[in-house]
């Protein structure tokens, strides 16, 4: 009935130990480089990025990946709840954890390695130190979504157009299946301009205003060799009609009609950045059994 501990002299244990060491050594030397090359070739073959989308980051605690919302130096509790609410209506809430990334956490907290998506939704200038952190996040394969923010990099710069500020305009958005969708949105008053630089990543225009200048308002940029990418928008996809300061009834009606399309475009953008927008069903409640040693 009493099991004796095996000793290091036990022949069976020594055999098992040696075979395990050999297996690990073989795997380290042989299989891992092959696996890496295989993954790279598969990623190149799958241009639609479906394989990349399946490779979700899991944060350090083994919990669902983090989606972070950066709103600049202000506390911005109301704005955070607004954007969080919109996100929860689009993404599979069970698969992600949504947090606010506060100004004091950008340089200190270890958010870079356990976050899948960073949303930047502030018009205030971004400090050089914070910009470096955001670029480091991209270089490690992170994704950034900009909502009317001052954040840009590489071949894109922001140009202010005061006549567009806080006005409702029709946008033409290019979808992933190469079709186009038209909708009315409130625009920030800024547009994107391409700057020709050597060695910059690819810049793709996703949306222009349906005006004489065909102003660019949504762009897609890639960065680094690890799959880092950003979609930057100067149209307010994140704002609900009720939270906007609408000047006229006509504008209100235009935004109301476009509301369904706004969600469609936002979901398309989130999916292209690797998030799942398939809403999972809420599990049915099960009984809880309470066991106690006390009566």
TrEMBL record:
Keywords: Ligase. Residues 187-291 form the Biotin-protein ligase N-terminal domain. This is Biotin--protein ligase. GO terms for molecular function: biotin--[biotin carboxyl-carrier protein] ligase activity. It comes from Phoenicopterus ruber ruber. One of its GO terms (cellular component) is cytoplasm. InterPro entries: Biotin-prot_ligase_N (IPR019197). Coiled coil: none annotated. The keyword Ligase applies. PANTHER family: BIOTIN PROTEIN LIGASE, BIOTIN--PROTEIN LIGASE.
């Amino acid at each position: 009935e009493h099991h004796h501990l095996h000793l290091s002299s036990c022949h069976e244990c020594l055999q098992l130990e040696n075979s395990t060491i050999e297996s690990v050594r073989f795997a380290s030397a042989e299989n891992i480089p092959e696996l890496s090359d295989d993954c790279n070739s598969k990623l190149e073959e799958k241009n639609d990025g479906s394989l990349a989308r399946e490779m979700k980051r899991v944060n350090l605690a083994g919990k669902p990946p983090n989606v972070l919302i950066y709103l600049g130096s202000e506390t911005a509790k109301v704005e955070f709840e607004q954007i969080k609410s919109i996100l929860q209506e689009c993404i599979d809430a069970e698969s992600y954890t949504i947090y606010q990334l506060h100004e004091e956490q950008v340089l200190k907290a270890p958010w870079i390695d356990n976050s899948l998506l960073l949303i930047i939704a502030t018009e205030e200038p971004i400090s050089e130190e914070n910009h470096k952190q955001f670029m480091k996040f991209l270089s490690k394969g992170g994704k950034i979504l900009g909502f009317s923010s001052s954040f840009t990099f590489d071949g894109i710069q922001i140009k202010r157009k005061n006549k567009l500020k806080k006005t409702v305009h029709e946008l033409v958005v290019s979808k992933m299946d190469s079709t186009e969708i038209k909708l009315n949105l409130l625009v920030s008053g800024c547009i994107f301009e391409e700057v020709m630089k050597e060695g910059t990543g690819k810049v793709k225009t996703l949306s222009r205003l349906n005006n004489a200048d065909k102003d660019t308002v949504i762009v897609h940029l890639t960065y680094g060799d690890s799959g880092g990418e950003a979609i930057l928008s100067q149209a307010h996809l994140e704002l609900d009609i009720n939270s906007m300061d609408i000047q006229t009834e006509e504008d209100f009606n235009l935004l109301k009609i476009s509301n369904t399309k706004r969600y469609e475009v936002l979901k398309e953008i989130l999916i292209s950045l690797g998030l799942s927008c398939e809403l999972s069903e809420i599990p049915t409640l099960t009984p809880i059994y309470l066991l106690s040693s006390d009566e």
